[in-house]
Amino acid sequence: MDNAANVVQQFSFGKPNASSITFFFIVVFITLFATYMAAKRSQKTASSYYTGGGGISGFQNGLALAGDYMSAASFLGISGMVALKGYDGVIYAVGWLVGWPALLFLIAEPLRNLGKFSFADVVAFRLNQKPIKTAAAIGGLLVLLSYTTAQMVGSGSLIKLLFGFSYELSVVIVGIAMLIYLLLGGMLATTWVQIIKASLLLAGVTLITILVLAKFNFNPGELYGAVSQKYGQTALEPGGFIKSGADAFSLGLALMLGLLGLPHILMRFFTVPNAKEARKSIVWATTWIGYFYIIIPIVGYGATVLVTRETITSIDKGGNMAAVMLAEVMGGSALMGFISAVAFATILAVVAGLTIAASAALANDLWIGVVKGGKATETEKYKSAKTATFIYGIIAIFLGISFKGQNVAFLVGLAFAVAASANFPALFLSIVWKKFSTTGAVLSILVGGLSAMILIIIGPTVWVDVLKHAAPIFPYKFPTIFSLPLAFIAGWIGSIIAPDLKAQELFEDEKLRTYLGVGVADAHDH
Amino acid sequence: MDKKQKEVLESERFKSLVRRKWIVSYVLLALLFLVYYGYIFIIAGNKAALAVKIGEYTNVGLILGPLVIIISWGLTAFYVWWANNTYDKEVEELKKML
């Protein structure tokens, strides 16, 4: 048996070494180059800033969506979960994919045809702009803030582990680099950063998978055999992750329908020219993300055998370094440096996507839509977008630093639960239900969002794990099993009590646009 | 809204297109729920079912996980195939009437 301490000595991350620094600069250089090219093509308009001009192809947008979605949490977190907990990590990975088909069936095409810059545009399309935009922007921002905080805190600890920078410096580097991309190149630059990052991530994970499988004669059965011999057959079987049917149902609802309410994902559909390309983007995104979640367990199990659970936990108890350590075992410090740089690009790209979505909520929905009553010149719109980006970037850095060392695992869950309960029901009802009224929409967003937040706070993830109470008041980790129906009921009650006759008329008119795409092109340039 | 647009909106052809779109969407969504929750509820109800070996070490669960992903992808691909071949053609026809 190796002494764990001796094994640890062999790993070279955490100290600035030549290869990781080189790859780090290569990644920064190519993303900045892409930003420069994007900046040259961008126009100084709000449309160009938020949507890249609407000229992204379905294939490109599919890769960019995959880039937005495959966060460091999925790459490092899920491979680590498989490495340490075995099959439970596989169950978790599967849940991350199933939202994409639902997004295609229910939302994607009408969203593309009705919206302009943000999902709030769609909810507000035929309803009273001010109250809806306020409520939808708050729902959106709540999701984005939780998600951003989780990403920033993760990035701080991760970059510290990978490159040896201090936590605060790491957070500031991510914040500033992301602001440079956004302020120079807007959505077009973000899209290219996402595409580059997704390609690098897929290539890196594929390479590790091939190297692992090569050790086992390209037979996954032999890899499973090695896992079984080392940690027993239970590592290949479901453990304690799924406790009850209701808990599992609630988790599934949050993961599946949460995707349909994530503002930064929804916003990407405005970068393609029409519903056909929106559809294509989802097929491509599902292809890449599905492939990723199919091979990531191989990386996890590879780490179980080739790095060992003891060595992984000696560096990071959560197992987040499993994939990076495996990379070093398989390909030396060069591959480790490459994978570290990919992880860095991943964090950067996701935070950039979140920030541009937040700037749309702040500037397009709240400032222009509510405060200015929709009346603003093109220059004002463009300037407010950039100002909002800058403000949100600073907030992100501040959140990252102030949550240092906090247990933020619940924040991603919170983001998905609020997205599923506050944003999705209102968005969906506004597309399919003629009688949906302004009051109904506002109530639905408020009831869904608040109930999701309160139930998370009194549930196991915050009440027990963060606040250290003995038992949770609400038994399930995910509140969606209650908060989602509550949001629909609130939307229904509000629409019955305060019907909106004008909106009902407009619903018929908007059908041509929703289903045939009539009137989309001319709305685009304004 | 001009007269032609009103005609298209009220035509049986347009209404039937919208109806068919949602039927396809809801049926595929139901299949997605069936596949994903089928998988999850088997785990919740009977963990041993996934531990049944089908190779020397490989078990049912290790095959089912990727299978759920592949079927979900297949449903997505089917929708796009349907929309490109059936839905879009009808959309073009209806647009000509405007």
Describe this structure as you would to a colleague.
The complex is a heterodimer of chains A (526) and B (98). With 526 residues, chain A is mostly helical. Chain A has helices spanning 4-9, 18-41, 46-51, 58-69, 72-85, 87-95, 99-114, 119-123, 129-163, 167-215, 220-231, 245-258, 263-267, 275-306, 309-315, 322-371, 378-402, 409-432, 438-457, 460-464, 480-497, 501-516, 520-524. The longest helix of chain A has 50 residues, at 322-371. Chain A starts with a helix and ends with a helix. Chain B is elongated, with a radius of gyration of 21 Å. Chain B has helices at residues 3-10, 12-45, 47-51, 60-96. Chain B contains 4 helices and no strands. In chain B, α2 packs antiparallel against α4. At the A-B interface, α6, α7, α11, α12 and α14 of A face α1, α2, α3 and α4 of B.
Quick one: overall form of chain A? globular
Low-confidence parts of chain B lasting 5 or more residues at pLDDT below 50?
A: none
What sort of overall outline of chain B do the alpha carbons produce when their principal axes are compared? elongated
> CATH topology of chain A, which one?
Sodium/glucose cotransporter
Structural class of chain B, by secondary structure, is mainly alpha
Radius of gyration of chain B: 21 Å
Q: Please estimate the helix content of chain B.
A: over 70%
Largest sheet of chain A: none
H/E element sequence of chain B? HHHH
CATH superfamily of chain A: Sodium/glucose cotransporter
Observed structural traits:
heterodimer; A: 526 residues; mainly alpha; Sodium/glucose cotransporter; 23 helices; globular; disordered C terminus; B: 98 residues
